[in-house]
């Protein structure tokens, strides 16, 4: 059963080669670029001829749908440029596609600020990534897109970790967090949703307590404390962004 490893990318030259090095066993590698200004496409072409560019960005869900359509394999393995497939996960994938069709989840182990994060609600962080092309596909969400599986298709876990090198440094975290907060607020505003600053404070506090206490973030050392604080800030920021949009709209009426 043929496997297409599929990636959507933009300005990922610093990550891409290391990622694709762990995918050379796949029958096909498909890379859809969103208009990179670095060497992303050149690096991708070192590994595959199936490199396309679509800079008409309409969100993560739509971009993944476009990438899915470019794949010719019977199975799709969706991977991000900052991820690495371990040998154990590779073997599990190759065995899984010999079985009856199912949607398979992988456990992501994230490296952040100098260590692998094994608590804080970050691990095993299971996400559906391997699926039969004709029986599953991504929705059109602007952000936090999800795989939608055909009714009756079983969901099963794979063994082995997908290593996730999530943030280069604190600036990268803050920039990525701001992008997600903006996309979240835009999506909610388009649905007619509103928010208050108090919701931002309460949700942010709840996020910190959940990560650091309930999810044992304290076991991740200083990185666990930093992540809990940053996540609380990010949670507050997305509600604050939605509140600001609401206030601006009210004044314009």
Automatic annotation (TrEMBL):
A Pfam family the protein falls into: Glycos_transf_2
Give start and end of each Glycosyltransferase 2-like domain.
4-112
Which species does this protein come from?
Vreelandella lutescens
Question: What are the alphabetically sorted keywords of the record?
Answer: Transferase
Supply the name of the protein: Glycosyl transferase
Spell out the InterPro entries in the cross-references: Glyco_trans_2-like (IPR001173), Nucleotide-diphossugar_trans (IPR029044)
| Family membership noted in the UniProt record | Belongs to the glycosyltransferase 2 family. WaaE/KdtX subfamily.
Q: Which Gene3D superfamilies match?
A: Spore Coat Polysaccharide Biosynthesis Protein SpsA, Chain A
Q: Name one GO molecular function term.
A: transferase activity
The signal peptide, as residue positions, is none
Q: Record's superkingdom?
A: Bacteria
């Amino acid at each position: 059963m043929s496997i297409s490893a599929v990636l959507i990318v933009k300005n990922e030259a610093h990550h891409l080669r290391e990622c694709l090095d762990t995918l050379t066993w796949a029958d096909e590698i498909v890379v859809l670029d969103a208009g990179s200004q670095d060497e992303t496409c050149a690096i991708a072409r070192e590994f595959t001829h199936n490199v396309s560019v679509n800079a008409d960005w309409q969100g993560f869900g739509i971009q993944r749908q476009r990438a899915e359509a470019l794949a010719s394999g019977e199975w799709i393995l969706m991977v991000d440029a900052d991820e690495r497939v371990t040998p154990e996960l590779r073997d599990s994938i190759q065995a899984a596609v010999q079985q009856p069709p199912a949607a398979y989840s992988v456990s992501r182990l994230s490296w952040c600020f100098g260590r692998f994060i094994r608590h804080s609600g970050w691990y095993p962080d299971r996400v559906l990534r391997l699926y039969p092309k004709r029986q599953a596909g991504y929705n059109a969400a602007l952000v936090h897109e999800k795989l939608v599986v055909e009714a009756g298709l079983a969901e099963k876990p794979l063994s082995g970790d997908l290593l996730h090198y999530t943030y280069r440094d604190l600036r990268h975290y803050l920039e990525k967090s701001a992008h997600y907060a903006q996309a979240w607020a835009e999506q909610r505003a388009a649905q007619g949703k509103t928010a208050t600053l108090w919701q931002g404070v309460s949700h942010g506090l709840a996020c910190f307590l959940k990560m650091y206490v309930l999810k044992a973030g304290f076991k991740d050392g200083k990185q666990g404390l930093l992540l809990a604080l940053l996540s609380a800030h990010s949670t507050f920021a997305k509600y604050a962004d939605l509140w600001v949009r609401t206030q601006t709209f009210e004044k314009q009426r």
